[in-house]
Amino acid sequence: MTLFLSKTLNKIDNKSRVSVPSTFRSALKNQSFKGIIAFPSYSDRCIDSCGINRMELIAQNLDETENYSKEEFDLISLCFGEAEKLPFDKEGRIILPKNLIEHSGIKDEALFVGLGPTFQIWEPKTFDQNKILTLKKAKEKNLKPRLKPIPKGV
């Protein structure tokens, strides 16, 4: 199982190239596509990312339409339509497309944030603001992380 953990801050060069953290590249090394799949997040101002295996699994599950509401199916379809295959170069870098840079507000640095089976790429200040807001909401609602298996489809 592919697992993305931790946070890594990397600089972006003037050609929009950024190094994907070595631990993330290692997690993807056995996949058929040597790179990442990236698309605009629909819930935050960041880039959602994963390996090709995850996208293939989602595509297989789409054939079982009873697993998804019409709205979920439509949203997943948008992900596929806007997904970009970003191959690694020899140094383990990807080129961030202009549309993803504009969506995320990324400028000179990209913050890679592991989410377990997926990861996100953030503009660092936006991530910090989002983190503060998330922790504030969690405290107000007395939320605690569920550290048990999350039901399939969540």
The residue-averaged pLDDT reads 92
How would you characterize the largest beta sheet? 6 strands, antiparallel
Oligomer: single chain
- Total number of strands: 8
The run of helices and strands is: EEHEEHHEEHEEH
Gap from first CA to last CA: 17 Å
Q: Rounded to an integer, what's the Rg over CA atoms?
A: 16 Å
Share of helical residues: 25-40%
Structural class designation: alpha+beta
Number of distinct helices: 5
Any idea what the shape is? Answer: globular
Strand order of the largest sheet: 1-7-8-4-3-5
Task: Report the β-strand fraction as a percent range.
Answer: 15-25%
Poorly predicted regions: none
Give a structural overview.
The protein is an alpha+beta fold. It is built from 5 helices and 8 strands, in the order ββαββααββαββα. The model has no long low-confidence stretch (mean pLDDT 92).
Sequence-ordered SSE layout with sheet pairings:
Blueprint: E1 7-11, E2 17-19, H1 22-27, E3 35-40, E4 47-50, H2 52-62, H3 70-82, E5 84-87, E6 93-95, H4 98-104, E7 109-114, E8 119-122, H5 124-140
Antiparallel strand pairs: 1-7, 2-6, 3-4, 3-5, 4-8, 7-8
Q: What attributes does this structure have?
A:
alpha+beta; two-stranded antiparallel sheet; 5 helices; globular
Could you give a quick summary of the protein structure above?
Helices cover 35% and strands 23% of the residues. It is built from 5 helices and 8 strands, in the order E-E-H-E-E-H-H-E-E-H-E-E-H. The protein has helices at residues 22-27, 52-62, 70-82, 98-104, 124-140; strands spanning 7-11, 17-19, 35-40, 47-50, 84-87, 93-95, 109-114, 119-122.
